[in-house]
Specification:
It is a single chain. This protein is an alpha+beta fold. A four-stranded antiparallel β-sheet has the order 2-3-1-4. α1 packs antiparallel against α2. The chain starts with a strand and ends in a 15-residue tail after the last helix. One of its GO terms (biological process) is translation. GO terms for molecular function: small ribosomal subunit rRNA binding; structural constituent of ribosome. It is found in: Mitochondrion.
Length: about 120
């Protein structure tokens, strides 16, 4: 199954935190027989609403996307690990498809598409 992880990390700590989190997550996926399709760094953006994590309130977060193929059990292990990581503000894992026809053309890189209304 193809999953897309959208992660939001504390801002201002540098790209090394993102690298460390994606490395840890990638190792979980790879050690359980999964495949990493791609990692995309979106940068720092305002959060839709302030988020409270471990006593701190965050208005901004550093976003990244990780696309991976794995089993449902691996996806649960990734969610459990990220939920315990104090550097993560928020995360969401979305199943993008499970049939080859649905996921064959999905690229590893998730481009930012701004929707502008005129």
């Amino acid at each position: 199954m193809l999953y897309e992880l959208i992660g939001v990390v504390r801002p201002g700590r540098g790209i090394n935190e993102i690298k460390d989190i994606t490395k840890t997550t990638g190792n979980i996926v790879l050690s359980r027989g999964g495949v990493i399709r791609g990692i995309t760094n979106w940068g720092t953006f305002l959060l839709p609403k302030p988020a409270r994590k471990q006593g701190a309130i965050y208005n901004q977060g550093h976003y990244f996307i990780l696309r991976f193929d794995s089993s449902a059990q691996t996806q649960h292990a990734v969610r459990r690990t990220l939920g315990l990581d104090p550097r993560m503000i928020r995360y969401s894992v979305v199943k993008m498809g499970s049939k080859l026809e649905e996921i064959a053309d999905v690229a590893g890189k998730a481009e930012w598409e701004s929707q502008r209304t005129t």
